Amino acid sequence: MDNANTAGRQETAAPAIELRGISKAFGPVQANKDISIRVMPGTIHGIIGENGAGKSTLMSILFGYYKADAGEIFISGQKTQIPDSQAAIAAGIGMVFQHFKLVQNFTVLENVILGAEDGALLNTSLRNARATLRQLAQEYELEVDPDAVIEDLSVGHQQRVEILKALYRQAEILILDEPTGVLTPSEADQLFRILRRLREEGKTIILITHKLREIMDITDTVSVMRRGEMTATVKTSETNPQELAELMVGRKVLLRIEKAPAQPKDVVLEIENLRVIDDAGVERIKGINLNLRAGEVLGIAGVAGNGQSELLEVLGGYQPASGKITMNGQEIDLTGKKSDGQSRRARGIAHVPEDRQSEGLIMDYTAWENVVFGYHGDPRFQSGLFMNNAAIKEDATGKMERFDVRPPNPRLMAKNFSGGNQQKIVVAREIERDPDILLVGQPTRGVDIGAIEFIHKQIIALRDRGKAILLVSVELDEVLSLSDRIAVMFDGQIMGERLPQNTDEREVGLLMAGVTEEAS
Amino acid sequence: MQKMPVWADVILIPLVSLLLAALLSAAVIVGIGEDPQAALKLMISGALGSTYGWGYTLYYATNFIFTGLAVSVAFHAKLFNIGGEGQAMLGGLGVALVALYIPWPHWSFALIGCTIGAALLGAAWAYIPAILQAKRGSHIVITTIMFNFIAFALLNYLLVNVMRPAGSMDPATASFPEATHLPTLHMLLEPLGIKFSKAAPANVSLVFALLAAVFVWLLIWRTRLGYEIRAFGHSESAARYAGINPVRITVIAMMVSGALAGMMSLNTTMGEGERLILNSTEGAGFIGIAVALMGRSHPVGVVVASILFGFLYQGGAELALWTSIPRDLIVVIQALVILFTGALDNMVRMPLERLFLMFGRKEG
């Protein structure tokens, strides 16, 4: 507050948003407990907390999706009732959801005016919107082709359309819910540039995230939520990631994994000239060669969509490929005719897939049914014609206990666990089989800090037992801190291999963008 | 979020839905100038007031259990089998072939033989849409509907040109030999000292239907195949990851479904008709969809819903017989029941859920 130029202006103005004593309960669960915050105009305010801390509930109240049980909302000093999202928009609040609300086969322009048409005839609306959009694009460096169809746009550009939608409705306050969860690192950088620009123009931004780095990067102030309560609001410049993490989790956490140097042994997996052509005829993997040794973590860095997913699918047994893969000297089938996910598992290849919700788990299955998923053919779990559900439940209970899945109730549906606990169920299932090779895709995507620490430790523990781990992650931090060796993938090719101690984010980042040393 | 207790989900919601359907039906009956109370009384006494009524109610229910189970099994794999009608017709053909062309010493052997015949042809009829869906992506809803028409045309051809006894004017096969006639409930219950109507068509295949319900329950919730069928139904991408073959699951689930639908003809063709006629299925294949919806694709629910629809069928026939309420009105009532229990499920569910939520908070 001692910076006279900027802080002085903020002092005099009323807060853009002020919440006083907001409480909201769902049945016996108190999602928000007596929450008060003040967000000054022209600032970026971060709200950070683990999954289930109540961040999204709070923002849903602000956007009129839920009605608070108690408390008051002030917009620019005016007490405001927000019974529905129409009222929120009228009050100048715009929301960008984690999952976009766009009509896939409409153009950008059509999406922007949807619900905000000037009248019954579309032509005038479209013409006016086109002009407004051009102006907004210039003002905030938000360039998007207004005639492009949404489904042809990248995720980053779709997000821009969401922001444009809010600005078109004259939002002064922009709420972004986990905006980088779906973005590549460079797209995230672009988003942050846009947000800074919006701040310069006097917009107020609330950023909900669980990523500490983003908070430190871009916010002016930050509020920490834990179990429905607001535990602290601090100036970003006066805090550090370690402190924020502790406030979030309520105890000390290790942000960087501590591990002994790897002791790699024999090569267990040899990939030669692997090629994958997808259903559309596009070559996704263009002849790569890789070795994986027992007792090491090989990290694959790369921007999402450069062939890493296909690599995991080939090894996991559900994506046909050509080339040659040998495991412990034996060639494994790549055509998909003599192999599938279950035959891979029988060989000792376990797989934590990139997307736990659509692949790793059946969301409508109970936890115990999920803990056997993929291994349900194991003779241990059969009794005659039937499955031995008692044995499966017992097995699941033990695994959930050892991996600290909360709540430790195997009868609960997978969809009722938080993201971190869902991931723990998957990781428990795969690691507890004691596989020779563990494939791990995005092990900590959408997972809270406490669970990240736990999952990382389990992966390193498996390595220390002499097993081989292939890690794919778009989080560069994660690859750098977990891996003993890093291979960078770009456009279906391996751009190079590095040792983590001999490289840095800049070098790997360049490789991820397809820039080789010779060229740079 | 707190959710409703299970009993409210499986009992209260269907009950409230039924009540709403009944109220609206009463309004319709008042609308055509009849007395709804008398109509309800007549339906109940006609369908449940005598062993004769029960005999018909259970006869219809047997059909619906088979077709309802058929739809349920496919639905667990997220496959919407609209082809129960056609599969049941082919099942009838299977029954007729086995009953007519193999000399059977006793009805019990014949029943087993006919079950195999009905199941095989029903499953074969479902196999074609299944393999088209699995390999070619032809939508199973479209293909199974088309296969209903093809089944009808095929049966028409066979009955008129091939299987019709010489000299008969009726598009039907000859009557099945005496040894294949199934015992009715009257004959089954007589040794136990229970008097059951002689004239009612309910027969031993009801027992088979109940056994089929037990079989489906075991298959879906106790076997590895059932686990894979449900997993595939919930998430195809997860099934692929786990090494579950989508082609195999689609084909097997549809063939089990077709076999169950085909077995319906044990009741109609073997039990009641004792010969194959052109329209022996009488739309039971379609009622199976409503039964599965109302019974939440669970065998217990399917059996209960089947008895309810059996009651509506028999009660409706009584209404048409004794009052000036037209037969069509019963279709209206059935439609209302389907509408409320199937399509408008959320209309009842949402307010009830809110009610439970409020109640739950008071307690907590």
Q: Which features does this protein show?
A:
heterodimer; A: 520 residues; alpha/beta; Rossmann fold; six-stranded mixed β-sheet; 34% helix; 25% strand; B: 364 residues; mainly alpha; globular
Structure write-up:
The complex is a heterodimer of chains A (520) and B (364). In chain A, a hairpin with a 2-residue loop joins strand 9 (221-226) and strand 10 (229-235). Chain A has 18 helices and 22 strands. The model of chain A is unreliable at 1-11 (pLDDT under 50). Chain A is of the alpha/beta class and 520 residues long. Chain A has a domain at 267-359 and 435-512: P-loop containing nucleotide triphosphate hydrolases (Rossmann fold), CATH 3.40.50.300. Chain A has helices at 4-12, 55-62, 85-90, 108-113, 122-140, 155-168, 185-200, 212-218, 241-249, 308-316, 341-347, 356-360, 367-371, 389-402, 419-431, 449-464, 476-482, 505-512, and strands spanning 17-26, 29-39, 44-49, 70-75, 78-79, 93-96, 173-177, 204-209, 221-226, 229-235, 267-277, 283-293, 297-301, 322-327, 330-331, 349-352, 382-383, 386-387, 437-441, 468-473, 485-490, 493-498. In chain A, helix 14 (389-402) packs across helix 15 (419-431) and helix 15 packs parallel to helix 16 (449-464). With 364 residues, chain B is an all-alpha fold. Chain B has one domain (35-323). Chain B contains 15 helices and no strands. In chain B, helix 1 (6-31) crosses helix 15, helix 3 (51-76) packs across helix 12 and helix 5 (107-136) runs antiparallel to helix 11 (246-273). Chain B is globular and about 70 Å long. The mean pLDDT of chain B is 91. Classes of the chains: A alpha/beta (520), B mainly alpha (364). Chain A binds chain B through residues 25-29, 316-318, 340-345, 351, 353, 355, 358-365, 369, 373-374, 376-377, 382, 385-387, 389, and chain B through 1-2, 218, 222-224, 227-228, 230-231, 234-235, 237-238, 240-245, 357, 360-361, 364.
